[in-house]
Specification:
Blueprint (H helix, E strand, L loop, with lengths): L11 H10 L4 E4 L2 E4 L5 H17 L6 E4 L3 E4 L4 E3 L3 E4 L2 H4 L5 E2 L2 E8 L4 H5 L1 H6 L7 E6 L4 E7 L5 E7 L3 E4 L4 E4 H4 L13
Parallel strand pairs: 4-7, 8-9
Antiparallel strand pairs: 1-2, 1-5, 3-6, 4-5, 6-8, 9-10, 10-11, 12-13
Length: about 200
């Protein structure tokens, strides 16, 4: 996230009005507006692969797979973020005409060197305020590695990491696919196998 440290507070309404007219995407966090960082070719390929796999998997379900260009509104955290891929199965989102969703069940962020720390820290903390969220997934674009955080019955987030040769499981969607399909056609990926 890139911000001007001298910027003033913006209301969510001002942010949304400006975002609807802006050719550049921005995220909103507690009154501050941040320009989204550009993405690499591997980032776009991975997001496309995930969008296609999830879309095909959920074709006959009442769920929407939304890659790259939809905001998630986190009311309690006072944030709007653009996840790389988000899935919602909530009727309130499915019937909405807004340019954001409120009830994500799965959020996927593809890590880059400039965003990885925030995606693992502050952004994950903010995402946890969405009570509908069941899984948060962090995907490396430099090696074949996917970390999935799942909320258990006690509300505790448990982490599981997948690497080369394994099936990736998004339990909330009954999604089980070989990790190699997610990284298909991504240049320069090294397969890392668990020991």
């Amino acid at each position: 996230m890139i911000a001007n440290p001298n910027q003033l507070y913006f209301s969510p309404e001002d942010y949304l009005a400006g975002e609807r007219q802006s050719p550049i995407k921005h995220e909103y966090r507690r009154g501050k507006i941040y320009a989204r960082v550009g993405v690499s070719l591997p980032h776009v390929i991975i997001a496309g692969n995930l969008g296609a796999l999830l879309g095909n998997h959920l074709l006959d379900n009442d769920c929407l797979v939304l890659p790259l260009n939809i905001k998630v509104r986190l009311e309690e955290a006072n944030c709007y973020y653009y996840p790389d891929v988000v899935v919602t199965c909530d009727e309130r989102d499915l019937s909405s005409n807004e340019d954001f969703i409120l009830y994500p069940s799965l959020i996927i962020e593809i890590l880059s060197p400039s965003t990885a720390k925030f995606d693992r820290g502050g952004k994950f903390t903010d995402y946890q305020t969405a009570t509908s969220l069941q899984e948060y997934v962090l995907v490396s674009q430099s090696e074949m590695s996917i970390e999935c955080f799942r909320k258990n019955e006690q509300g505790i987030w448990i982490s599981q990491t997948y690497s080369g040769g394994e099936k990736v499981n998004f339990a909330s969607l009954d999604f089980n696919y070989q990790i190699e399909l997610i990284y298909q056609k991504v240049p320069g990926i090294e397969v890392r196998r668990k020991k």
